[in-house]
Amino acid sequence: MTKVLGVEFAPLNVPFRRRLETLAVFQWTLSFLFLGFGCLFITISLLFSRFYFIPLLYLVYYVWDRKTSARGGRRFQWIRNWPLWRYFHSFFPITLVKTADLDPNKNYIMCFHPHGVLSVSAFCHFATEGSGWSKTFPGLTPYLLVLAGHFQFPFYRDYFMAGGAIEATSESMRYVLTKMGKGHALGLVVGGALEALEAFPGRYNLKLKNKKGFIKMALTTGASLVPIFSFGETELFTQVDNPEGSRLRNLQNWLTRYSGFSPPLFHGRGMFNYTFGLMPYRRPVYTVVGAPIDVELIEKPSQEQINTLHQQYLMALTELFDKHKTEYGVPESQQLHFID
């Protein structure tokens, strides 16, 4: 490899498979960050061209189809099985670690931690077959819960749903858990957009202290809770330091609160260099799926019942983290921190 002005460039004699892996991650990064706005721009542009009828027809379709993202989505298994996603998975690689069986005759809220900057491993497991979800948990249909704003972008919304993404709203979750039968696994990144601002290598701050909506959802639907910790997710990018109370953090919190999207200032590697770019670093990620916490259905749970299950969940997640942390490179002294 060659280093010029502090930038470490990739060598020319890289194996062809590694180039395919890099290309797969490069396209995902561009798609995740820019495809939505790109589709919106192209759609608006078409309105002022001789192809104006395309966005008009799509508008009619959207009005008819707008609730689909909150009604279980519209997945296409052949898209989830694209070879592209196997190269995407192998780039890091991202490994799905099973510690207990999940009964396909039940429904699950798969509680994913930590958010990381872009939730790379959550996408790999729940929106593709890159890590082999169907072989690891046969009979369970996975869904990736994402901000509803993703489904406001024309065409992009259809592409995102095709992999198994649906809205991260109570309406959407309740529909899948109560109206679509059994055998569904909702991949919920519990910390939400604000937790992305806590994504720093070596830090384990989870916005869980007062997050109880998913607990209430489990109680009112009878869905089992499954703690998941993805070791290595926060190592994939470098973020500009933004301590609480700083001007940057205050601005980020304000933007997240009013837009729904968190704006971390981050960088990873580039397509042809290892020093700077928007792609994640090539570092291994191990997503450990814990044992399910079975939940008794309670139509109107009390606050005490919600608090009790919340504490039970935090204990289970802490136990999962402590049991596996040294195996995946986290110091024995490192602890999880639950924050507001």
Automatic annotation (TrEMBL):
Q: One Pfam family, please name it.
A: DAGAT
Topology relative to the lipid bilayer, per the entry, is:
Multi-pass membrane protein
> What are the entry keywords?
Acyltransferase, Endoplasmic reticulum, Glycerol metabolism, Lipid biosynthesis, Lipid metabolism, Membrane, Transferase, Transmembrane, Transmembrane helix
Q: Which InterPro entries match?
A: DAGAT (IPR007130)
Entry's Gene Ontology molecular function annotations? diacylglycerol O-acyltransferase activity
Q: Which GO BP annotation is one of this protein's?
A: glycerol metabolic process
The cellular location(s) given in this protein's UniProt record come to:
Endoplasmic reticulum membrane
Q: Where is the signal peptide?
A: none
Q: What is its EC number?
A: 2.3.1.-
Q: Please state the protein's primary subcellular location.
A: endoplasmic reticulum
Q: What family name appears in the similarity comment? A: Belongs to the diacylglycerol acyltransferase family.
Protein known as: Acyltransferase
